[in-house]
Amino acid sequence: MDTPVYDYLISYAESGTLRMHMPGHKGKKTGNELSEIFRLDLTEITDAGNLFSDEGIIAESERNATELFGTKATFYSTGGSTQCIQTMLALVKREGRKVIAVRNVHRAFLSACTLLDIDPDWIMPEYSDTYVSGQIPLNAVEEKLKANQNACLYVTSPDYLGAMADIKTLADLCHRYGAVLLVDNAHGGLLPFYSENRHPIHLGADLCCDSAHKMLPALTGAAYLHVGNERYVSKVKEAMLLFASTSPSYLITCSLDLCNRFIADEIRGKLADAVKWTDELRRTVEKRYVISYPAFDREDLHFTVNAARSGIKGSVLAAYLRENGIEYEYADDTYIVMLFSPCDDHDAYLKVADVLMKADFALEYPKEEKFHLPPPEKILTIREAAFRDYEEIPVTKSTGRICASLDLPCPPAVPIAVSGELMTAELAEIMQSFGIEKVRVVKA
To answer: Which of 324, 273, 332, 268 is nearest to 304 (CA)?
Structure first.
């Protein structure tokens, strides 16, 4: 597959042109450790195109991505999935749609609601043993859609544990009631390229985002915004401009361009190997550990260990992994998540298996209790609370106060209480159990 952005950056770097334009490094090696890549770092000069134009080298590269992902249109974001989420919500806000959201959202969704003054109607997942992941109750979805004739449904799939929702059924439900489906698919960029295409757009979603940098070979901040509904194609770039830098990174854009080539030329064979090796790893460690198997489906390269049910406190297992040269993606007292990608070689899988199987712990199984997150009482809208003056206090003293702006640790950046909601003793206890010691509350 051709790489129009990369090809242009190389040709310009080798042209000898005197750079009387930004960036200030002028493409020179300056002694800075990053200066090797300065020569490819440009701004919107005459022939370099523009991220928000329908013509030029970037638009040509986006058309390549559209073909690869099989969408109505695919657009680039240099602001990660955060910028895509903001754009998706701006599009449905302009249509006056009520936003119905499954609660285990990423903080990027909450930030977008703050900026756009969106007050979502929450659906609480059916949790098992964590607030990060849960099954979406289809009956609750249908009830909300029936009650809101101009709505959109927002879901996170895969979630931070790799669990996936039944997107096809959700899309059918939405379209039956005239609603649109938005999917935060940040962790699911690989889904079109497995033996079975399980990408949200293929399954009927109207809009979704993929963080290319999470599971694909692209620079941090690189993301795709995919359109499955034709009416949004002509509106995306203008909406994205509301949130974008006026100087989007050409290096990030170029990494998406090169990621397209990787997808076209290499990904299916590498994914087949990755799936085989991950299955081998699961079979090996299942002799000793409980591997998470979601109720509906999972993203194949999320390797999720239920440490608690394996008899090991998750934080202890996490420290052990780090001591043995393995940095995980996410850990709490219950779960450890490690992410593989098509760029890992077989040795990575063998090392994880070796380290896990050599672990020597005195097993201790906690009492199994179904996790319950009570629907908090809303006092203010998200926007009202987020822009109020606040104070940071110990969680233990937060009962009866109103949650203000959020400072959610990432990962997983999933809220227990949302801005504008009333803190209770039960919520405070849940926060403490996940290591959250302080909370911002609206000043009295």
So the answer is: 332
Please say if the pLDDT value at position 366 is more than 90. no
Asked whether residue 185 falls in the same domain as residue 206, the answer is yes
Residue 197 and residue 178 share a domain: yes
CB 110 within 8 A of CB 120: no
Please give the share of the chain, as a percent, with pLDDT higher than 90.
88
78 and 202 inside one domain: yes
Locate 263 and state its tokens: 């997808």
Nearest to 223 by CA among 69, 8, 46, 6: 69
For the whole prediction, is pTM greater than 0.90?
yes
Both 87 and 190 in one domain: the answer is yes
Closest CA to 211 of 2, 425, 1, 410: 410
| Contact status, residue 182 vs residue 208, Cβ threshold 8 Å | yes
User: In 3D, which of 431, 203, 161 has the Cα closest to residue 305?
Assistant: 161
Domain end call among 323, 343, 358: 358
Helix, strand, coil percentages (3-state) for the chain, rounded to 5, are: 40, 15, 45
Residue 284's domain is classified under what CATH number?
A: 3.90.1150.150
Residues 239, 211 share a domain: yes
Domain span at residue 417 reads 382-442
Q: How far apart are CA 324 and CA 254, in angstroms?
A: 35
pLDDT band at residue 365 using 50, 70 and 90 as cut-offs:
confident
Please provide the average confidence, as pLDDT, over all residues in the chain.
95
